[in-house]
Amino acid sequence: MEVMEYIRRQMAAARRLLDATLQDTTEEQFNWLPPGTANSIKAGLLHTLGSEDRFIQVLIQGKPRLWESEGWSQKVGLALPPGHDGGWEEIKATTVGMAPILAYMQAVRVATDAYLAGLSAGGLDREVAWLGGQRAVADMLAMLANHIAGHAGEIAAIKGIQGVKGLPY
């Protein structure tokens, strides 16, 4: 198998897992705040999407995040997606609708897919800035796929705590 096909399959698999965890999620479940320090579904999902937006747009391509360039702050009703720059307290205190966050998810996926469609195997070795050092684009994409899958598991667990099935299988 060609390496770019493998990367696209990894991203698709992580997305399928995330989508499966979101099936049949209600607005109430989405906004429910778990006890302790666990993240809500809304926080976990928006963090995942904001991270993908940051990885692909900012870190790898040197572009602004879609969050800023397409006005998602106003559409979602939050200053920031929870992540490296903050936003964790704001999302805890704010009830948000699923529809605008799912629309942001679609926009992020379209942008990621467009980037991956133009990426060649040779571009995977290019180094980008990451946490005060350098990482290859391939490493960033592997981290991203794992990040999506990890937060999908977190979302499934939060649904389970609420007494509903976290994954449909």
Total helix count? 8
Biggest sheet architecture: 2 strands, antiparallel
Taken as a percent bin, the fraction of beta residues is under 5%
Radius of gyration: 16 Å
Structural class: mainly alpha
Q: Which spans of ≥5 residues are poorly predicted at pLDDT below 50?
A: none
Assign a percent range to the helix content. 55-70%
The tally of structural domains comes to 1
User: What's the overall geometry?
Assistant: globular
Overall CATH architecture: Up-down Bundle
Number of strands: 2
How would you spell out the order of helices and strands?
HHHHHHHEEH
N-to-C CA distance: 28 Å
Main-sheet strand order equals 1-2
By CATH, the topology is: Four Helix Bundle (Hemerythrin (Met), subunit A)
The averaged pLDDT comes out at 96
CATH superfamily: dinb family like domain
CATH domain class: Mainly Alpha
Quick recap:
The chain has helices at 3-22, 27-31, 41-60, 66-69, 72-76, 88-93, 98-118, 137-161, and strands at residues 127-130, 133-136. It has 169 residues and is mainly alpha-helical.
Protein model, in words:
This protein has 169 residues and is mainly alpha-helical. The chain has helices at 3-22, 27-31, 41-60, 66-69, 72-76, 88-93, 98-118, 137-161; strands spanning 127-130, 133-136. The chain is globular and about 45 Å long. Strand 1 and strand 2 (133-136) form a beta hairpin. A two-stranded antiparallel ribbon has the order 1-2. The chain contains eight helices and two strands. Helix content is 63%, strand content 5%. The chain has one domain (3-161): Four Helix Bundle (Hemerythrin (Met), subunit A) (Up-down Bundle), CATH 1.20.120.
